[in-house]
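Sharing a chain and its predicted structure for anyone who wants a worked example. Both blocks are below, sequence first, tokens second.
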Amino acid sequence: MVDFRLYAITGETFHPGRRLVDVMEQAIRGGADIVQFRDKTSGREELLRKAAELRELTRRYGVPFIVNDHVDIAMEVDADGIHLGQGDMPIAEARKLVGSKIIGISTHAISEAQLAEAEGADYIGVGPIYATATKADVVDPVGLSYVREVAGIIKIPFVAIGGIKLGNVDEVIRAGASRVCAVSEIVGSPDPEAVCRAFIHKLEGRGGAADGTGH
């Protein structure tokens, strides 16, 4: 079973002038223990180049590497897994393509979470917890109530995502999340390593008294 605490996703628009691989290395050095490459705009050649660089980086640090959406790119660079959205291919179809690699899927409601678990997802994303500018097509925030719901029902690992910052992560943890994901708060920071260390410190402290199991 895949396990992690701090899930870092790439977001190059948040760090103009800094190399993708440098920013993500800083995040890993700070404690990010799984990395997802998400790029909705580059062409295939550019996607492959960036993915290959990140694969080399994550392999060097022993960190799982996930590719968002692009199953072909993931397979070509030997990524550890893929992440799907609700509008992407079904998990069963993805499993035929990626074999035993990690499959994660975004969920926005408990019915989606239960289906993902039943269909063999290795982990799910739970969110967006708060409003976020990271994704233009984002659904309405699901709030902390969804975290509590998932923590009480779902047995596979889940990661809270969407608008999570150092200033609000404690309440996400108290709602039952033991794994969190941040994008702009990490990669948009001038010091991603320090931000990741701060997230890890909060996760280790569990945000005070937890209200759920977090699985």
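Comments welcome. The two ends are 12 Å apart (CA to CA).
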